[in-house]
Amino acid sequence: MADGRLAPPPPPSIPPTIGPVSGTLEDFAYKGNLAEVKRMLERGADVQSVETVAGGYGWSALNSAAAAGHKDVVALLVRKCANLEATNAHGHTPLHSAAARGHIHVVRFIAEIDENYWKGTDEYKHWKKGEGKEKSFEESGLWIATTQYLDAKSGGKKSRTAAELADAFDHDFVKEFLDQRHEELEIAEQRRGGTNKAPPAEQKGRGKT
């Protein structure tokens, strides 16, 4: 490196010898095979499944796609309500995995998910018609990015936020974006009174969540 520091080691990846088993949902997600991911989901594959193989590397399809930088696959899995908070064997959420590898397009997509992202979907319509009276926005599976999510620390000896991981691996543009997005979310959350409350438009008549 120009400033004399030792270059950081590469971010953890899925070792090819013990990565997702060939032909699984996780495997197709990691390879960015959108058509096969769609086909498997249509045939009933569990979007929340985690592939655990020799070596203990447990990766969900979403985390696999995020780690490999396949935004189209990530978007499909999120739309199917894949768990964005589930961690892999390194204790990384999909956001951690994408940030550590500098996949700004995936990081931006995840960090900018809000209520508007879900409008028009069957899940949103169902929640708005009645389920929202009993469950919070997030409890209904309609996940939105929050400062709490951005502040989440990864597992392992060097526990870091997604922004800190991006910084550690010299992905300055990713860190800058995450810092800016954190400020935006913090302002929005202060306006609606907390990180886990539904967007302002949905608060009326629902009570506390």
TrEMBL record:
Composition bias type Pro residues, residue spans: 7-18
Region (Disordered): 1-20, 184-209
Keywords: ANK repeat, Repeat
ANK repeats: 57-89, 90-112
Listed GO MF terms: ubiquitin-protein transferase activity
Record carries keyword Metal-binding: no
GO biological process, one term: protein K6-linked ubiquitination
Domain of life from the UniProt record: Eukaryota
Nucleotide-binding recorded as keyword: no
Pfam families in alphabetical order: Ank_2 (PF12796)
Protein name according to UniProt: Uncharacterized protein
UniProt organism field: Diacronema lutheri (Unicellular marine alga)
Organism taxonomic ancestry: Eukaryota, Haptista, Haptophyta, Pavlovophyceae, Pavlovales
